[in-house]
Design brief:
Helix content is 30%, strand content 19%. The chain starts with 14 loop residues before the first helix and ends with a helix. The longest helix has 14 residues. The strands form 3 sheets. The chain has a 4-stranded mixed sheet with strand order 2-1-8-7, covered by helices on one side. A 4-stranded antiparallel sheet has the order 3-4-5-6, with no helix packed on it. It has 236 residues and is an alpha+beta fold. It comes from Ceratopteris richardii (Triangle waterfern).
């Protein structure tokens, strides 16, 4: 009896290489590596039964206000939550997102924090918009979109009310015609977190297997990390 020929399978996408190839994601890559969130994203991307959808802020997004000011005082654990807020815990293709209308999605941060950290996504005037109380980000381009992984570029950092509360003196962003208005229920950020230190990247280990380098236990000062990333971006 002849055994059937093995079925060819597509190897998991390397998220690091996808972001490097696209360019304009140096700050995000630095934060993903230093926090360990990149390895977590890659593990989920490697699971075809689950998948992941990532909203990747470009370098310029971290220089915009109020993002630049808000990130000055974040703790390592808050950086982890912020990064995880930029990923849905399943695969959503661009065509699927184009069918949304004021749809709430849970994120990886929702799972990690036992609730909250939801994103509103809607398709309006030919654009997919990702909405928070602080800003409204339009998908600028698609970096990768094949089951079980999608990576979409944004020119805004998504800011969750779960970390930053509501904007002090401004309502939720005015929607484009036909888009919903988001009104979060909480007007103040949660109590201060007491996080473990974020780990720095290690040069040891087979980084190519996960796309992100394994982590050691060397603490990282988050504000300095973001500052240096932005300085590198501005200089080069």
């Amino acid at each position: 009896m002849v055994s059937p020929a093995p079925t060819a399978t597509t190897p998991p996408v390397n998220l690091t290489q996808a972001l490097i190839s696209a360019g304009d994601f140096s700050v995000l890559l630095t934060l993903l590596n230093a926090s360990g969130v990149g390895a977590k994203f890659q593990m989920q991307a490697n699971n075809p039964e689950v998948g992941i959808s990532i909203f990747a802020p470009k370098d310029v997004a971290f220089t915009k206000e109020p993002t630049a000011t808000l990130l000055k005082n974040v703790t390592p654990q808050q950086v982890v939550a912020l990064l995880e807020y930029h990923a849905l815990n399943n695969w959503q293709s661009l065509s699927a997102l184009q069918q949304t209308s004021n749809t709430e999605f849970t994120t990886i941060a929702t799972t990690s924090n036992g609730g909250g950290f939801e994103l509103n996504i809607t398709f309006v005037q030919g654009q997919v918009q990702v909405v928070t109380a602080w800003n409204r980000a339009t998908i600028a381009s698609t970096l990768y979109d094949a089951k079980p992984v999608s990576v979409f570029a944004l020119e805004e950092v998504l800011l969750p009310v779960d970390l930053f509360g509501l904007p002090a003196s401004a309502p939720a962003p005015s929607p484009a015609s036909g888009a919903p208005s988001i009104a979060p229920s909480s007007s103040s950020p949660p109590s201060s977190l007491s996080p473990p230190p974020v780990s720095g990247p290690s040069s040891a280990g087979p980084a190519a297997e996960t796309g992100f380098a394994p982590q050691t236990h060397r603490p990282v000062v988050v504000t300095s990390l973001i500052f240096l990333s932005l300085l590198f971006f501005k200089l080069f």
